[in-house]
C-alpha cells in the first residue's frame, strides 16, 4: 500500500534508516531495501529536504555495477534487493536531509534519511625524523694505540729488546735524563764565561778583575 503525499510517494516497497551518523573526513554507508519486482528499476540518492527540489547526486544504471560520482557511490544488489550508498571524505556541510529513491513512471518511491556529521576532534600528530651521525674508526688507528707490551714473550730483558713501543721510549727517556744529570754536574756558572764582543772587552778592561 502506498501513502501518497504531494510530490512523492512513501511506500512499503522501499525502506531505509531514519538517521545515519558520519565522522568528518571519514565515510558513511546507507543501505536501503526494496520489495520484489523493483530489481531492475533505477535507484538514486538525492540531497535536500524538499522532495521536488532535491538534487540527485548519483543513480544506478539498471545493473549491479557500482556507479560513482565525485565522493558518492551507489551499488544495487538485485539478488538481496538492497542498494548501498557510500559517501567518502565527509565534510561538516554534508549534514543534510537525503532520500533513497526508486525511479518509476509517475511518482517515484522514496524514503527520507537524515545525515549528521560529527567533527573530528583528534589532533593531527606531527612526526619528526632526526638524522643521526655515526663516527667510523679504522682498525689501523686502534692498532696503533694498543699497548705493544701485550705481545711480548720471554724474560723481561728480552721483552724490552724485542718489543717496540713504550719500552724503547723508556730507554730514550733514560738517556735524556742522564744527559740532563750530566749537564747539571758539569755546567756550573763558574765554568761558563760570558761572551761579549771584542769591542766591549776593550772598552771595560776592569771587568775581568771582578770575575
TrEMBL record:
InterPro entries recorded: CD300_family_receptors, Ig-like_dom_sf, Ig-like_fold, Ig_V-set
- Asked if the keyword Transmembrane belongs to this entry, the reply reads yes
* Protein keywords: Disulfide bond, Membrane, Signal, Transmembrane
Q: Where is the Immunoglobulin V-set domain?
A: 16-116
Pfam families according to UniProt: V-set
Which Gene Ontology CC terms are recorded? membrane
The keyword Membrane is assigned to this record: yes
Query: What are the subcellular locations of this protein?
Result: Membrane
Q: What is this protein called?
A: CD300 molecule like family member d
UniProt source species: Macaca mulatta
Amino acid at each position: 500500500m502506498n501513502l501518497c503525499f504531494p510530490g512523492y510517494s512513501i511506500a512499503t516497497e522501499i525502506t531505509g534508516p531514519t538517521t545515519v551518523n558520519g565522522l568528518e573526513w571519514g565515510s558513511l554507508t546507507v543501505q536501503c531495501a526494496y520489495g520484489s519486482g523493483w530489481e531492475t528499476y533505477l535507484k538514486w540518492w538525492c540531497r535536500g529536504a524538499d522532495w521536488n527540489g532535491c538534487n540527485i547526486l548519483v543513480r544506478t544504471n539498471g545493473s549491479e555495477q557500482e556507479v560513482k560520482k565525485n565522493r558518492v557511490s551507489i551499488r544495487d544488489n538485485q539478488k538481496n534487493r538492497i542498494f548501498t550508498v557510500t559517501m567518502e571524505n565527509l565534510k561538516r556541510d554534508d549534514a543534510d536531509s537525503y532520500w533513497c529513491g526508486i525511479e518509476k513512471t509517475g511518482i517515484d518511491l522514496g524514503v527520507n534519511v537524515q545525515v549528521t556529521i560529527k567533527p573530528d576532534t583528534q589532533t593531527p600528530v606531527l612526526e619528526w625524523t632526526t638524522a643521526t651521525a655515526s663516527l667510523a674508526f679504522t682498525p689501523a688507528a686502534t692498532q696503533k694505540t694498543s699497548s705493544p707490551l701485550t705481545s711480548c714473550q720471554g724474560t723481561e730483558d728480552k721483552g724490552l729488546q724485542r718489543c717496540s713501543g713504550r719500552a724503547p721510549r723508556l730507554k730514550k727517556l733514560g738517556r735524556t735524563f742522564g744527559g740532563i744529570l750530566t749537564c747539571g754536574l758539569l755546567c756550573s756558572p763558574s765554568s761558563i764565561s760570558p761572551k761579549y764582543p771584542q769591542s766591549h772587552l776593550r772598552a771595560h778592561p776592569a771587568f775581568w778583575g771582578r770575575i
